[in-house]
């Protein structure tokens, strides 16, 4: 086995342990409550030291939000890759239709979303992460060929798109996941579509 293969194996092992640790922590958060569950509790349940926990996650909040930052970069790339002639609102709609499920999955299932809604610390972190994602998408909108968008307009459009996605996700939660999330995203974008 050469160095590249060993490095690849280490990275796959790290991802697997990280995913297992996140699953365990989320289960504890849902069962006991986020504030009531400590990093020590998670480490003990996983058979790790507290120090080992922090090798995988910089903070307890980061367990809940997984790889949202990596996802933000991929969403921004999807925005840049849309056809140049496509209007910005149509770009956002197409990308969020395509990525909406993955964005939601990065934030967890319905139980985790309810956990986030019930915890002020998690809501604050979620808003911070959403703002960072929105900023990256707004920059990507401006960077599209011949976009002609200024920062204000790009920020406004991505903010509206984020509200549309949030409304679709809240409706999905209200109906316990019975509704089709893509249909809800379409409905939200239709309601908020800019006048021609």
Automatic annotation (TrEMBL):
Residues 15-75 form the HTH tetR-type domain. Residues 38-57 bind DNA. It comes from the Bacteria. Keywords: DNA-binding, Transcription, Transcription regulation. This is TetR family transcriptional regulator. It comes from Actinomadura nitritigenes.
